[in-house]
Amino acid sequence: MSLEFSVADEAFREEIATWLEANLQGEFAPLRHRGGPGDEEAFPELRKAWERHLAKAGWICVGWPTEHGGRGLDVTRQVIFHEEYARAGGPGRMGHIGEGLIGPTLIAYGTQEQQRRLLPGIREGREFWAQGYSEPSAGSDLSNLRTRAELDETSDEWRIDGQKVWTSLAHESQWIFVVARCERGSVGPKGLCFLLVPLDQPGVTIRPIRQISGGCEFNEVFFDDARTAANNIVGAPGEGWKIAMALLGFERGLSTLGQQMHFTQELELICQVARENGAARQPALRQRIARAWVGLKVMRYNALRMLSGGEDGQLPREALIYKYYWSNWHRDLGKLAMDVLGHTGNVVDDSDPVRRRVQQLFLFTRADTIYAGTNEIQLNIIAERGLGMPRESRSNA
Length: 397
Fold this sequence. Notes:
Blueprint: H1 7-23, H2 44-56, H3 75-87, H4 96-109, H5 112-123, E1 129-132, E2 148-152, E3 157-164, E4 175-181, E5 192-198, E6 204-209, E7 218-229, E8 233-234, H6 240-251, H7 255-277, H8 283-306, H9 322-341, H10 353-365, H11 375-386
Parallel strand pairs: 1-4
Antiparallel strand pairs: 2-3, 3-7, 4-5, 5-8, 6-7
């Protein structure tokens, strides 16, 4: 994808940069550079207020079509928005899963009634969503999921039993989308449905998961005869896998540019530490910093290349390598960060915010090559879907 910025584009860049600088002040000043991966539990109520503040100014759902209340920005303007938001230190978005994942999925595959009922809450920063994909026996291998859903025709509701895990910010959300098995005896990606489920009900239990970094932004969610209305299904019964994969396509879309700007800031922080403590004078560390910078540029160019996908979540083959690439790059950045800190990295000192931030970076990046599909699963996806190679043999045991 060839991306060039016109004079009008640069004027738009100045507009969003100026607005962010003026508004990330006062009560919102503590949110700068907070709430990202590994820090998602920071200031939840203030970040919800920030979502509503963004919405009032028209800076939520900038890429949604205008008929659904968005700004209808083209790809170029969306790239500019995400880059400037991250550059300004905009906080991690509480509404990311709603705006970036389920919202576009409902626009592409939902009914008009679902769109009228559910999109306004996302667009106005009032309702937040969690993702119900992974399970204890179906983490990277989502098709192995066991959560079951059965349509109760007497009550006109889906009844759901099972467990989801690693559900980011479920304890702060009102809704969760759940991929469940709705056809008895089905296996693999067949016989699944994609349900929209309210979290505030007796049949749902949310338990936090404490992480090595000390936080608990992730949760386990248990469904014990939980209910959702019969019309809270996206697509038809049996089409859950299709909808789930389309949603993941939206996940690998434009917001990746903001993610990369966040990575850039982390690399700049490492460079700052290296200059201050003398690590920058070590040739081996200088080479690793240079390689990290080169890798970040490669990541950006591939992201621009893969943004030529359609509006249905179906991205080109180039998108298949993105998760594998960035997660390994980011894990290596975490190792580099600790090596730059040297022996001081072994001591936790909350009075040194820069050191603590670098340590948090290292601790969280240990999970990068595991969540959202392990390295092994990602390589299988590249081989089978991208290169057309035979499926990996599986044991029948």
